[in-house]
Amino acid sequence: SKVELLNRISYIYYNRDLEKLKSYAEEALALAENLSDLNGQGASWVNIGNYYFGQSSYDSALLIYQKALE
Fold it and tell me: For residue 57, which phi and psi values (nearest 5 degrees)?
């Protein structure tokens, strides 16, 4: 699905470009929410958490990772 593809692209940018990672993850999240795709939403939140982790914002990353579990 497009949500899965966007999340995969987002993950690829983890060690390359955190801003692109976040951008693709947010696009995936918006689409997943629109489609009521819970798995896609969870994966998107994990990727957004990875953005904050990569920025060394560990408290923010933890909050986002917890959202992924909801």
Answer: -95, 75
Report whether 21 contacts 55 (CB < 8 A): no
Q: Which two tokens stand for residue 38?
A: 């819970």
Is 18 within 8 Å of 34 (Cβ atoms)? no
pLDDT by residue (tens digit) across 32-47?
999 999 999 999 999 9
Considering only the C-alpha atoms of the chain, give the largest distance between any 2 of them, rounded to a whole number of Å: 31
CB 21 within 8 A of CB 50: yes
What is the model's pLDDT at position 22?
97
- How many C-beta atoms lie closer than 10 Å to residue 22's C-beta? 19
